[in-house]
Structures are given as C-alpha cells and as structure tokens.
Specification:
With 547 residues, the chain is of the alpha/beta class. Helix content is 33%, strand content 18%. Strands 1, 2, 3, 4, 5, 6, 7 and 18 form an eight-stranded mixed beta sheet that branches. The protein has a five-stranded parallel beta sheet with strand order 8-17-9-10-13, covered by helices on one side. Helix 15 packs parallel to helix 17. Bound molecules: 3-acetylpyridine adenine dinucleotide. 3-acetylpyridine adenine dinucleotide binds next to helix 5.
Length: 547
C-alpha cells in the first residue's frame, strides 16, 4: 500500500522512466496488487518515442503491427497501425492510447527527474530523491531508464560557440524545426542520421553530411498496412505471438537455416536480390544463418550491398566515400528510405571525416581540413552512451553507499542482465547483460517484468526482504554473455554495442546475443529457487518504513 510520512511517500515499487518499459512495469505491478509510482523527467509518456521527433524518425525494424504490447489482445484488436515502419509520432500516439486505456497517468509523476537513489540496508528499501522535492521509498526499484536515452554529445572544438540552432536527434524540440532556406550540417550517419538526412535534404538550402564511418543501410520498404494485414494479425494473433516468442529477435519470422557458403554465387545473388527488394529486416530475419559468424559469408553480403550503393550513387567519388569497410551487421543494421539517392541531389555535400577531419566550429561555420563550410544549423545524429549510460547517469548508491559508477568502473557487472551485486532489489530493464536492443523491446520488457514480478512473489512467500546476485553468479553470467558474443563477428567492430563510441567507456560487447535462449535461462534460474542469488530475511515492513 502507498503511504506518506512527512514529506516522504512510500510505495512497494518505484519505477524510473515512463517509456515503453516503465509503462508496462506500472501495469504489471499494479495487476499484482502492489503500490507503484513512476517518475519521468519528460512531460508525457513514451520515453524515446517522446524525445525522438526528428524528421524521418520511424521504427527502423520489422515494425508494425508487431512492435507493440502483447500482454492483452485488446490493443491488437483495437489499434489500427498505418504503416509497417511506423512514424515516431504514430508510435507515440499508440503509447498515449495505451496510457489512456490503462489510466496509467494517475500513477506517473511527469517533469520529475530522479536525482538520486540510495539503498538503506537497515530498512531494505530504496529512497529516491527528485528535483521537485518529492522523495519516496520503495522496496523495489525498477530502472526503466532506456537503453538509448543518454545523448552522446560530441566534444568538438568551438561547437559551443556556434550561434545557430543545434539539435540532437534524441532531444528533438517539440516545436516545429524549419530547415527552409538554411544551410544544415548533420554529424553522424547511424540509424538516426540516415533517417533524417533525406528529409532534411528535401527542405534545406544546402545539406553537409559529416560522416565518420560509412554504413551499410538496407531498403526500409515502408508501406501502408492494409485492412487485410490487420485482419490477418488480429485473426491469427495467437499464432503470431507464438512465433514471436520462438524467434531470436522477438518478431514473427522463421529464420533461414542454411549457410551463405552452401549456395552458388548465382543462388546467393538471387537470394540477396529478393531480400533487397522485400526490404525491412528480411536480411537478418530470413537471410543466411552465418552472416554474423563467418568472415567469408559476411563478405558475400557486404559486397552485395557495396555493389548496390555504387549502382545508386551517381558520382563515383561520393560512392567511394560511402563504402563501408566493417563486417556487415556488426554495427546496428540500418533501414533507409531514399538515403543513397540523397547523394544524387545538387544541394547535398558529403564530407568524409576520416580524410577530411573537423578542425573546429565557428559561430557560423564548420571548418574541416580541406576548408570552411558556412552553416546555419547543426543536427547532431551522434547517438547515445548506450545500454549502460542511462544507468550510470542515475548512479544509484547500493550497499555501503557504493555507487554504480564505482561498481561499473571497469565492467558492467550484472546477473541475468537485470540485477547487480551490492544493489539489492534493484532491477534493470534492457540493461547490460540482457538481449535489450537485440530483441523486440516492448515484448522483451513484458518478459523481463514477468520474471521480476515472479521473483517479488517468491520473496514475499518465503518471508524474504531482499535479494542480490552473488559475485560468482555475476562472473558466470559475464562469461556466458562474452562466450556467445565472441563466437560472432560483433565484438570485432567498433560500435555503440561495444562502447567504442564513448571515450573512456569499458570496451566490450555487453548484450546477451542468445535471443530466445535468454528467456529460457532466466526461467531456469527461477525454477531453481532463484539460483545464483543471495537472500536476506525480511525486516518488519512498518518498522522499515518508519525508521
Ligand atoms: O546513433 P549511432 P543513432 N564526430 O551511434 C557518429 C536506435 N534507433 O542515434 O560510427 C563525428 O548509431 C557515429 O560515427 P561512428 C538504433 O538501435 C532506432 O543513429 O561512431 N561523428 C555514427 O555515424 C540505433 O542503432 C530508431 O564512427 C560522430 C553516428 O554519429 C541507435 O538508436 C531510430 C561523432 C551515431 O550513430 C542509435 O542510432 C534511430 C563525432 N564526435 C535510432 N560521434 C527507431 O527505431 C558520433 N559520431 C526509430
């Protein structure tokens, strides 16, 4: 039950973040009969979908209608998706609809930034302090803080002196941003940049793309969702759901089971061409099974895509600059809608920063080694301090006042991607050590929350007050995560998956790449009475709250 003593409110569960995961956390723990309070610094639900309103922002994955909550059939039956790669604003509308349907807002405090979260060993409770002066305690702290929410802002000489508008894609203003008649520079050619660049180019007087790493991008093949598609999804929802649960990425696809190297070059070319024409994530969900594990197989697909780029981009020098040279798929695969064609426009210049690095910004320009580019606006599509960054920004203090920054100085220690030794009763959603960004995120959040809820019930039934992983189970989990990753090509490329995009960050591949295996592993731990955890007897709840 929620209660109040002085200026402190008491709950069973405090959730930080009202994005997709935090929204579901609220619903799930409410259904369990627990008192829940959610805090979010934004003024609305949606998390990443609230902040990413940049031009061209869309679900860049297999998309609608399968990027959604699945815990009730009601939303599937009720909600009409418009396109397969839904616009950011459409996903946000869906999330608002869900928030209204479930009356979530009454338990969410918006515009409230959690400044600190401290564990009290005597009471076995977390205390959170917010910037509004509202403080709360809870037995459980759910960190639904987002895997991609802490912006990576580049520290480039003179950037602070730039006098024009400067926007990061992940902190996009809610007021309209006009590019008309402006000379715009975009830094970054990841998913956000590649979505934004074609849209900005259509409106701006001139667009200068400042590219550090050339990327592979595949046709998004966005299209309208027909009434037949929706009827099919609704009528066969149970079947689709079962496929999503069985699939490694949480989407309704049956994977290809053959090696690229078993096909003849002609067969391979025909297969790749078919997948290219179909677009979306077909290459990853229905492509050959060894693209991410065999250098030789990887090269067949990488060469195919490089050939496509050359065939679309008319100027050979520009095409040369756009040639990616890493293993395809080992940076987050990107979907594009007109990106390659954008370089055929007269108002677009590509600067390859590897050959022509940025020296500095001035009030009105960016100066690279080869000369000065006058600009009126900067768009920073420079990504995120991903996966661990938002947890470290929160920097909770666990047993003995040890901060997460101290605990994670060299490695993001965790068990099952959800719990951290020394931080009892704290659960991360989509954190390091979990499939997180490699899985359909709403579905992943539902499945993690289901496990966490069962774990809380277990504690209650056993009269236990706190749990945390042992050092041995954290070490074993780290080896399991690394063992799976090291069997692939992923760790061999610098990416935000490996932490290489943020200076000083521990450099290793921290996501669990085993797909559906992850959910079997966590279920197995639960079935073995939460093996790998250490428990403490519960102290009296009332005493705990009062002290
Ligand atoms: O960020 P990124 P993003 N100087 O890190 C460059 C998800 N997402 O926002 O590759 C110059 O991928 C950096 O260069 P490099 C999706 O999972 C989802 O685009 O590090 N350049 C890179 O080109 C995605 O993967 C959706 O050498 C600098 C770019 O900036 C993830 O979010 C939409 C630089 C950053 O690319 C992140 O994508 C969009 C510097 N100092 C994104 N610093 C939807 O589903 C960085 N770069 C809607």
């Amino acid at each position: 039950m929620a209660s109040k003593s002085g200026s402190i409110e008491h709950y069973d569960v405090v959730v930080i973040g009202a994005g997709v995961s935090g929204m579901y956390a609220l619903q799930h723990f409410r259904e369990m009969g627990l008192s829940v309070r959610v805090y979010d610094g934004a003024s609305n639900v949606g998390g990443t979908w609230w902040h990413n309103g940049y031009p061209g922002a869309r679900v860049d994955g297999p998309g609608s209608p399968f990027y959604c909550f699945t815990f009730t059939d009601e939303f599937v039956k009720d909600w009409d998706w418009a396109e397969t790669q839904s616009k950011s604003s459409d996903v946000h509308e869906y999330l608002e609809y869900v928030a209204d349907k479930l009356d979530l807002r009454r338990d969410i405090q918006f515009e409230t930034w959690v400044q600190d979260a401290v564990y009290d060993e005597a009471t076995q409770r977390w205390t959170v302090e917010t910037n509004t002066g509202v403080n709360a305690t809870a037995q459980y702290l759910i960190c639904a803080v987002g895997a991609l929410s802490k912006a990576n802002l580049p520290n480039i000489a003179g950037i602070k002196d730039f006098a024009g508008e400067c926007h990061h894609t992940g902190q996009w203003p809610h007021e309209p941003v006009s590019f008309e008649g402006k000379r715009v520079a975009v830094i970054g050619t990841g998913s956000s940049g590649i979505q934004a660049i074609p849209e900005i180019a259509k409106e701006a007087e001139h667009l200068t793309v400042l590219q550090r790493t050339a990327q592979f991008a595949f046709p998004a093949a966005n299209r309208e969702i027909t009434p037949e598609d929706l009827a099919d999804a609704r009528e066969n929802w149970d079947e689709f759901k079962a496929m999503m649960i069985a699939n490694a990425g949480g989407f309704p696809h049956a994977g290809e089971m053959t090696s690229a190297l078993d096909a003849t070059p002609e067969e391979r070319e025909a297969h790749y061409e078919k997948l290219w024409q179909r677009g979306s994530f077909k290459f990853f969900l229905e492509g050959y099974n060894d693209i991410a594990t065999s250098e030789e197989a990887n090269k067949t697909l990488a060469d195919f895509v490089r050939g496509k780029i050359r065939s679309i981009v008319k100027d050979p020098e520009t095409a040369d600059k756009l040639m990616p040279d890493h293993f395809v798929m080992t940076k987050r695969p990107i979907l594009e809608d007109g990106y390659w064609h954008t370089y055929n426009r007269d108002n677009v210049t590509l600067v390859d920063l590897r050959e022509d690095p940025i020296e500095r910004f001035t009030e009105t320009s960016v100066i690279t080694a080869s000369g000065e580019h006058p600009i009126d606006m900067i768009v920073l599509a420079t990504g995120y301090d991903a996966i661990s960054g938002s947890m470290l920004r929160l920097n909770p203090k666990g047993r003995g006042g040890v901060s997460l920054k101290e605990r994670w100085e060299e490695r993001f220690h965790n068990y099952l991607g959800m719990t951290i030794g020394g931080f009892p009763n704290l659960f991360m959603i989509h954190g390091p050590g979990s499939p997180g960004v490699f899985y359909n995120m709403p579905l992943g959040a539902e499945r993690q929350m289901g496990w966490i809820g069962d774990c809380m019930r277990h504690l209650e039934k056993q009269g236990l007050g706190a749990l945390e992983p042992s050092a041995e189970s954290e070490a074993a989990w780290a080896s399991e995560v690394s063992g799976i990753a090291n069997a692939t090509l992923f760790p061999r490329t610098d990416s935000w998956w490996t932490g290489a995009n943020v200076e000083g960050k521990p450099r290793y591949f921290s996501a669990y790449l085993g797909g559906a295996l992850y959910y079997m592993r966590i279920a197995d731990v639960a079935s073995k009475e939460y093996a790998g955890f250490e428990f403490e007897e519960a102290r009296s709840g009332d005493d705990a709250k009062a002290s």
